[in-house]
Automatic annotation (TrEMBL):
Taxonomic source organism: Chenopodium quinoa (Quinoa)
Protein name, UniProt field: F-box domain-containing protein
Gene3D superfamilies: 1.20.1280.50, Ribonuclease Inhibitor
PANTHER family: F-BOX/RNI SUPERFAMILY PROTEIN-RELATED, F-BOX_LRR-REPEAT PROTEIN 13-LIKE
UniProt-listed SMART domains: FBD, FBOX
Pfam families named in the record: F-box, FBD, LRR_At5g56370
InterPro entries: F-box-like_dom_sf, F-box_AtFBL13-like, F-box_dom, FBD, FBL13/AtMIF1-like, LRR_dom_sf, LRR_FXL15/At3g58940/PEG3-like
Length: 489
């Protein structure tokens, strides 16, 4: 017992013997509340917490009540003021409510204390980030020349004069979430001032305020490698234009509306692209057909991609592949590097997708989500076979619900996919799996599916009814599952 006590004393003495500057470095890796709690363990450490070079307070995936969040946010400025270091590496504040900081005068004081210490990283997050309180951002924040990372998550509103001098020469990453009423010239000036920026994430709760007839958003960056743009709503009548010029861009994520106009220059290094477009009810005077044509032109600009996620949700027209299929061969844009394509379509659009694959000669993985409540009067699969169909390794089809035409389509695919390794087929749910006729339909579909001729002798077919059934053609072949003993699993 005494030996254990002596060992603990030696450990305590070893820690106590460390010089204050080393202890300060150790404490700087902890959250500020833990730092303060640690400092009261020893009289010598009583004021040691004031020497830390990081201020971090986060909930660590544990819910912090709104009441406690508000209480803590009221003392943030006082805590920062007591820090003696003139350099702040990280300021991170993650709360369930920033309501106290939504007072413009309090926010101004907080940012002045932070920016006055040559801060390198500012991370302020309200979790969840969407509420009715607007978090005001003062103009002087954008003159923090040592800032490397800026992440703001909340209902962000900029208190900026019309001509704000932005100087962020060292900024490498920016994430602004739930932007509200952004001054129309601000973002263009921001990107022009951040020549070293490599990662940008912008989410707009509503759109840019601009008195001119058309909104133009210029995004440029000589070193920008990753860009995310998300629009949650449009509260205006202009049709916006988003122009991207980033020669080093590798990853592009867009969640927007079909009415938005996009254009990209110098996309030679693009590898991963995700585009999700939704119909905007505010633009009744723009035909969906015209919007999709513009979208097709935008996608054509990105012929270097390896992975493409392309999804359109509209009232009537969702088929962008008709334009790939309709171009003349001499004008055809090919995507020689495209290996994976994920998309959605109606039943009637399969032909255009298959025929447009002539533009994707090296496609290896294909996922298709069939839109709900879509049907076709006929499925004629007498099509020419695109080159990539003989190179596909995996195909995933989700949402099949019309047995007559599904089997015709799947037979065409299996007969021409020479090296296919796995075909995943997921059917939409049935109203009841307890009814005998529904079980009979499933047995018939699986039997017919697994007996389809295959060009690839090693291809495995996996059928799923989400949440109820998963059965493989290998099980069927090995008589683990047969029409006679088929059951819901």
């Amino acid at each position: 017992m005494d030996g254990m006590k002596n060992m603990n004393l030696r450990k305590k003495d070893r820690l106590s013997s460390l010089p204050d500057d080393i202890l300060s470095v150790i404490l700087s890796h902890l959250q500020i509340n833990s730092v303060v709690a640690t400092s009261i363990l020893s009289r010598r450490w009583r004021y040691l917490w004031t020497t830390v070079t990081n201020f971090k307070f986060e909930h660590d995936n544990q819910y912090l009540s709104k009441r406690r969040s508000i209480k803590f946010s009221t003392v943030v400025v006082n805590i920062v003021r007591q820090l003696t270091s003139q350099k702040l590496g990280v300021f991170k504040l993650q709360l369930s409510s920033l309501s106290n900081l939504c007072d413009a005068s309090v926010a101004d004081l907080c940012f002045r204390e932070i920016c006055g210490r040559n801060v390198e990283q500012i991370i302020i997050e309200e979790v969840p980030g969407y509420n009715n309180n607007l978090f005001p951002i003062p103009a002087f924040l954008f003159s923090s020349q040592n800032l490397v990372v800026l992440i703001l998550r909340g209902m962000i509103k900029f208190n900026l004069p019309e001509k704000t001098d932005i100087q962020l020469p060292n900024l490498r990453k920016i994430s602004l979430t739930y932007l509200v009423s952004v001054p129309h010239q601000f973002l263009g000036s921001l990107f022009r001032s951040c020549q070293r920026l490599i990662d940008a994430d912008l989410m707009f709760n509503d759109y840019i305020t601009q008195p001119e007839p058309q909104i133009v958003l210029n995004i440029s960056g000589p070193e920008l490698r990753s860009l995310q743009i998300r629009f949650l709503a449009h509260l205006h009548t202009q049709r916006p234009k988003i122009l991207i010029d980033a020669p080093e861009l590798e990853t592009l994520y867009i969640n927007s509306f079909t009415s938005d106009y996009y254009s990209i220059q110098n996309p030679a290094k693009l590898v991963n692209v995700s585009i999700q477009m939704y119909m905007n009810e505010e633009y009744n005077y723009f035909r969906e057909e015209d919007c999709l044509k513009e979208m097709f032109k935008f996608v054509k600009q990105m012929s270097s991609v390896r992975k493409l996620f392309l999804r359109v949700q509209a009232n009537e027209v969702t088929n962008v592949y008709r334009y790939f299929n309709s171009v003349n061969l001499k004008d055809m844009t090919t995507f020689p590097n495209l290996e994976r394509l994920e998309t959605n379509l109606d039943y009637d659009d399969w032909k255009d997708l298959i025929l447009s694959m002539k533009c994707f000669p090296n496609l290896r993985h294909l996922r298709v989500d069939i839109n709900m409540d879509t049907y076709t009067d006929a499925m004629d699969c007498d099509w020419c076979v695109p080159e990539c169909l003989s190179k596909l390794k995996t195909i995933e089809i989700y949402g099949v619900h019309d047995i007559r035409y599904d089997l015709t389509l799947l037979e065409y695919i299996l007969s021409n996919a020479l090296v296919l390794e796995k075909l995943h087929v997921q059917r939409t749910g049935l109203k009841s799996l307890n009814l005998t006729d529904n079980k009979a339909k499933l047995r018939y579909f699986c039997k017919s599916l697994f007996q389809l001729p295959r060009a690839s002798s090693t291809c495995e077919i996996v059928f799923r009814l989400r949440g109820f059934v998963r059965v493989s053609s290998n099980d069927w072949k090995n008589r683990k599952v047969t029409p006679e003993n088929f059951r819901v699993i």
